[in-house]
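Risk register update: the risk that structure generation would not scale has been downgraded. Supporting records follow, first protein first.
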Amino acid sequence: MTAHRTVVAHPTYRGRRGRAQRGAVVLAVVALMLAGCASGGAGIPSRPSPSPTAQRAAPDPIAEYAEARLASMTLRQKVASLLMLHRPGVDGAALRAFVGNYGLGGLILMGDNIPPGLDTLRAETAEISSDPGLPVLTATDEEGGIVKRLPEDGAPGAEELKEQTPDATRAAFASRAALLKAGGIALNFGTIADVTADPNSFIFDRVLGTTPADAASRVAASVAGQKGVVLSTLKHFPGHGEVEADSHLSIPTTPVSLAQWRQRDEPPFEAGVRSGADVVMFGHLVYSAVDSAPASLSAVWHRILADEIGFDGVTITDDLRMLQDSGVPQYRDPGENAVRALAAGNTMLLFVLGASPSQDGVDPGHIIDAVVAAVNAGRIGLAQIDEDALKLLTLRRSLAVGND
């Protein structure tokens, strides 16, 4: 756990004891003020009250833009902005039409979206957003090693990095971030924060460490290497390393207790949050001693991430089509899965789709309809939709301003 204390805190990291520490400081100041009053005011020297103008904070143009944009949106538009989908192909105009048809907030680029050459990729991604002032959130999985989308990525992957120093991990992910930015991709689903020493585990070849401490130091380094270049993601919360099964094919389940999880699986996620990770991806993993639902659909696990680890950034599901592919009857309806995922606390929903709804059994319009109906029925609060949409609008606007 020592490695955690060496990582610089990030604005989205609140920590377990933040509220208690702030409360203690406030009480101490109040006590000092009372003591000063009792001794004739000697405790704290008086100072002129600031003018009303000085008290007002300077307006935040990004926040003002996002709030104005939100105020102009219908419920359906807000819901659509919470979706990140995939469509095959390298035709930027076709991808822009797909995004615009539904009003999507994000697009994930898979291998079938990556043309040869970074310049060609940059031209493709530049076409995706119809409004440069509010770009579509483009993402991909650039872990390195056995999971990479960019042929130009020659930096070492997890199998090599877990045997090297954290500095090597930082350098590798700094290289990846530069490539992604050159290709016009803003968000990397690239940092594996899972930890396992089990070579039979589905995730073993992709973890950055086989012990909590080793994984934590390299996860923090991975996030630091991407900072300020692309947005980074920690996956697959609460941790795929406790199971051998592949969540693409089933819903892996473990009886690991919350206390055991805190010792074995939490440290890399906490280290990544403290290092400044922008996004956390929730896995379709059941920790049966904590919640019977997969973490991606679990309000319990979202509260743990927010209240215990202190993360208040963007959360996103792993591909929700994986729930359907598990064959479990209760996860057969993609619209219902979307409703449950938002109700649990996810900011954004990820669906990796094929060329047409008939290939996947997933119609983006049906997903949007299902969530809108759930809001109208009171299953999801409108305030929550507004909060999630505003968070993503703010993030997307900040990308536009940062590229000016």
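Supporting record for the second protein:
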Amino acid sequence: MTTSYTTAELRDTVAMLSSPPLIRLITEIDDNGPIPARGLTRTLADLSTHHLRQTTDQARTLGLIRVRPGVGVGLTEAGTELADVYDATARWARRHAYPSGISDFTSRIQHTLRLVAEALAPVVADGPGCSAGDHFTSAKMDADFVGACDLLHQWLSAYPQAARLAEYEFAA
């Protein structure tokens, strides 16, 4: 099923998915498994209680995480697939030293997601793929970049509630 996104919806959705606390939460669980519910503040100690609560509420609303008694906070299928998007964008960014050679994991994902969304915008309603606009070099349009575009497009098509939540979040 393909869901049509306007350029503004795509921009807002990618901005929401690029939230550093959300990236941290999803990748931490993806890398290390479920986090005990009471262990979130210890695991993500650099996030304030407010940001952590806001992020977990947002992730739960998006269907990215679930809390299972005795197991903790784990990823849903949507969360696991978003972690794959994050991994693909970070892999491309690392290979191309994007946005710079000394960028951290989160900023690599943020910047690359914006770049992927920019490349994806012209085709998001028509099907998977990236549009190689005039400003994209062949290095940027390598297989990893196209793969990241395809993963993001698939995720957006499979989980259209992200655009609805982004619209609510950015309207508030």
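Strands lie at 65-68, 72-75. On this basis the risk owner (M.S.) recommends closing the item.
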